[in-house]
Design goal:
This protein is α/β, with parallel strands linked by helices. It is built from nine helices and 23 strands. It has helices spanning about 90-105, 165-180, 210-220, 270-285, 305-310, 320-330, 345-350, 375-385, 395-405, and strands at about 1-10, 15-20, 25, 35-40, 45-50, 50-55, 115, 130-135, 140-145, 155, 185-190, 195-205, 225-230, 240, 245-250, 260, 290-295, 310-315, 335-340, 365, 385-390, 410-420, 430-435. An eight-stranded mixed beta sheet has the order 7-22-23-21-20-17-18-19, with helices on both faces. Strands 10-9-8-11-12-13-14 form a seven-stranded mixed beta sheet. Strands 5-3-2-1-4-6 form a six-stranded mixed beta sheet, with no helix packed on it. A hairpin with a 4-residue loop joins strand 11 and strand 12 (about 195-205). The longest helix has 20 residues, at about 90-105. The chain is globular.
């Protein structure tokens, strides 16, 4: 049914939301205050509608800079951005409200029960991504994103989320893959501003001598591509060239040094905002002079800065290339010891230690994957650490785990949202947890 409605807010999934006859209607490409015409499916519950037209723009609506954004022809409707039409200040306000509501609903933390700090902005709301994943559109020989909620490729001519050098690399790699006879099902590209070169991850059917030779030819065809990681399902990664890049840990603080990265290992895509994330976490944790337990250390995003301030760092990560990179970065740090294993299992094991040689930590920092750290509450209680900082990329699992920590006796003292992904609904959160005084 075609109807007119006014968009009232932005939903956590990125769509604008209004009401039609008491029914919530979610409309993509819209923002607060927009008066729109939409095709609304029949039914009684919440509806996901299609935008027909914007009759009158709202006060926070802006003209998107990208030709691929919004509904339209075959090269529109890219799924990479959600809020390219919404003023950045409105995006930030929406993310703050979303975090507050998620903590109220899932963690049962009422506003005022903790210090919710203003969201930390990304230094750049556009052109901030130094790494991204693409799909090879074989029909055009170009690297593409998928259209929103589909597997149809959008033949990219530009992407305003990518740093310009990565956008240019994307333009070159697609045709070059065809020239050398490679057709990976997925391509991840990474760019290092420090080294002025890139690297690639290619997901291939099998890593054979012929595929290796074609990957070497790709490096010859794209000179700024320094290395390739070939990955077949179920097999180990194969390295061609030199795919390990180095990035400034914090572009705003050159004295923070460099960190190794590889395109098949998780690393924050927004290096500028990552610097703010790390500073926020360490300022809340106050690790100076403490023995610190770091869970889910990954490639050492927090480990290096922790080592510069803490007395000792016990960093835990499952065995794999991320841990290898972290160990290589911090080989000269005498106060860091790495433990290979499941983070929560090792935390519980440390908590069970007794006697004069039992390890005790003055602070704990954890940065789990999107699924969170289910069971972290009892683990922290057994460790007996007076404070912990939890870093999360998913507000729902973050809120679930904070509730478990509260039930284990900890207090949520402060929460700091950080905007790592402008133009999308995604938001990073950092929480300080404190134990009651003995």
């Amino acid at each position: 049914m075609r109807t007119s409605l006014t968009i009232e807010d932005l939903a956590p999934g990125g769509e604008g939301v209004g009401h039609e006859g008491g029914r919530a209607v979610f409309v993509p490409w819209t923002g607060p205050g927009d008066r729109v015409v939409a095709d609304v499916p029949s039914g009684d519950g919440p509806a996901h509608a299609s935008l027909v037209a914007v009759e009158a723009p709202g006060p926070v609506r802006e003209t998107p800079p990208c030709r691929h954004f919004g509904p339209g022809g075959p090269d529109s409707c890219c799924g990479g951005c959600e809020w390219l039409h919404v003023a950045y200040r409105a995006q930030l306000a929406t993310k703050e409200r979303s975090v507050r509501e998620t903590l109220r609903r899932i963690a049962r933390l009422e506003p005022g029960a903790y210090d919710l700090r203003p969201i930390a902005q990304s230094p750049a709301p556009l052109r901030y991504r130094g790494r991204a994943k693409f799909h090879l559109d074989r029909a055009s020989g170009r690297l593409a994103f998928f259209r929103r909620r589909s597997h149809e490729p959008v033949r990219l001519a530009e992407c305003h989320l990518l740093v310009p050098e990565l956008d240019a690399l994307r333009e070159r790699v697609g045709p070059a893959l065809g020239e050398v006879g490679l057709a990976p099902r997925e391509v991840a590209l990474e760019w290092s501003a420090h080294e002025a070169c890139g690297s690639a991850l290619l997901l291939v059917a099998a890593v054979t001598p012929a595929v290796r030779a074609r990957a070497e030819a790709l490096l010859g065809a794209v000179r700024v591509l320094r290395g390739v990681v070939l990955q077949a399902e179920g097999g180990p990664p194969a390295l061609v060239g030199e795919p390990v890049l180095r990035h400034p840990r914090d572009p705003a603080r050159p004295e923070a040094g460099l960190q190794r990265s590889r395109p098949d290992v998780f690393q924050q895509a927004n290096r500028g905002a990552n610097g703010a994330l790390v500073r926020t976490a360490l300022d809340l944790l106050a690790p100076d002079g403490e023995d610190v337990l770091e869970l889910y250390c990954g490639a050492g995003n927090f480990t290096g800065p922790l080592a510069a301030r803490a007395r000792t760092v016990a960093a835990v990560e499952v065995q794999g290339p991320a841990l290898e990179l972290a160990r290589a970065d911090l080989a000269g740090a005498a106060n860091v010891r790495f433990f290979a294993g499941d983070a929560l299992k090792l935390a519980r094991a440390f908590g069970r230690e007794r006697g004069a040689d039992a390890r005790r930590f003055g602070a704990v920092l954890l940065d789990p994957p999107r699924e969170g750290a289910k069971g972290i509450g009892p683990a922290l209680r057994d460790l007996g650490s007076p404070r912990a900082v939890y870093v999360s990329c998913d507000p729902a699992t973050f809120a679930r785990d904070l509730r478990a920590c509260v039930e284990a006796g900890y207090r949520v003292a402060a929460v700091q949202p950080v905007d790592m992904f402008p133009q999308t609904h995604h938001v990073e959160c950092v929480a300080l947890l404190t134990a009651p005084a003995p």
